[in-house]
Amino acid sequence: MRASKATSRKVEMLVQKHKDGEISKSEKDELDRYMMLNQVMSIVKAKARQVAMPA
Q1: Would the CA dihedral through 14, 16, 18, 23 be positive or negative?
Q2: pLDDT by residue (tens digit) across 2-55?
Q3: Are 15 and 32 in contact (CB under 8 A)?
Q4: Which of 11, 12, 38, 52 is 20 to 30 A away from residue 3, measured at CA?
Q5: Domain range holding 32?
Q6: Cα-Cα-Cα-Cα dihedral of 24, 28, 34, 36, to 10°?
Q7: Total domains, the chain
Q8: Residue 21, phi then psi, degrees to nearest 5
């Protein structure tokens, strides 16, 4: 599973604005939500790999 190209571009833009110190509060909140979702998806993918490859 991967984010759409549009979502990836949006996240890249938000990250750059954050690095440049030009991010608004609402943009920072949006970036934080994307980062949280990324962490959750990483955990889900890891669990799926464990189930797919039993010991």
Answers
A1: negative
A2: 889 999 999 999 999 999 999 999 999 999 999 999 999 999 999 999 898 876
A3: no
A4: 52
A5: 5-52
A6: -170
A7: 1
A8: 75, 25
